[in-house]
Amino acid sequence: MRIFLDTANIEQIRNAVKLGVISGVTTNPSLVSKEGTSDYESVVKTICGIVEGSVSAEVLAEDAKGMVEEGRVKASWAPNVVVKIPITTAGLEATSILSKEGIGVNVTLCFSANQALLAALAGATYISPFVGRLDDIGQDGMQVVKDIVEVYNHYKLPTQVIAASIRHPLHCLAAAKAGAHIATVPYNVLLQMVNHPLTDIGISRFLSDWKRVSR
Ligand code: E4P
Fold first, then answer.
1. Using CA positions, which residue lies closest to atom 8 of ligand 1?
2. Which CATH number fits domain 2-213: 3.40.1190.10, 3.20.20.70, 2.60.120.10, 3.20.20.20?
3. Does the pLDDT of residue 170 top 80, yes or no?
4. Mean pLDDT of the region 189-215
5. The whole model's pTM is what?
6. Which of 25, 165, 172, 189 for a ligand 1 pocket mutation test, highest count of atoms within 8 Å of Cβ?
7. Alpha-carbon distance 101 to 105, whole Å?
């Protein structure tokens, strides 16, 4: 499973890229607004200068025509921009048009395997099931990821599954075990995946043992 960073924070992206484990970034309007700017274009262009892999930029239009127009503009910002489109009837129509033009589409706000099947049929490059938001309302978010992986594998559909709305490291492990192609993780979750108290204890024990003999 590959890891994308789920943020619009440039410092976090720079730090994560240095680790050599990030192969893409996902943004959404909430994440960009969290950075205190409405200049989505400049944020995405900056990210595309840091990250080689795909960078998802979400459309704000709600009708198919608007989504297509906005999608074409956003896709022109950089070669690695993927247009993020919500799964609605308008979203499917826009996905179908943009994917036929060779523009990558990440279909977002997916909460069921049926939605994911339709997104794949419309030509989506990625589907983003929102695990955490389903967990939040008492439904098993990871089960949706498992169902999508099963359906896609069954029919050899090429759309890649991005486990999204990831809240903690256990979500990442479960997504990897479920066969998700990618998990898009907030920066704090990435750090939680790296850190382990026994690693810290082990390092300080090695160092103190070494100091005893090297005095
Ligand atoms: C990523 O593509 C999604 O927009 C993001 O993971 C949503 O996460 P949230 O449910 O924590 O807002």
1. 165
2. 3.20.20.70
3. yes
4. 96
5. 0.96
6. 165
7. 11
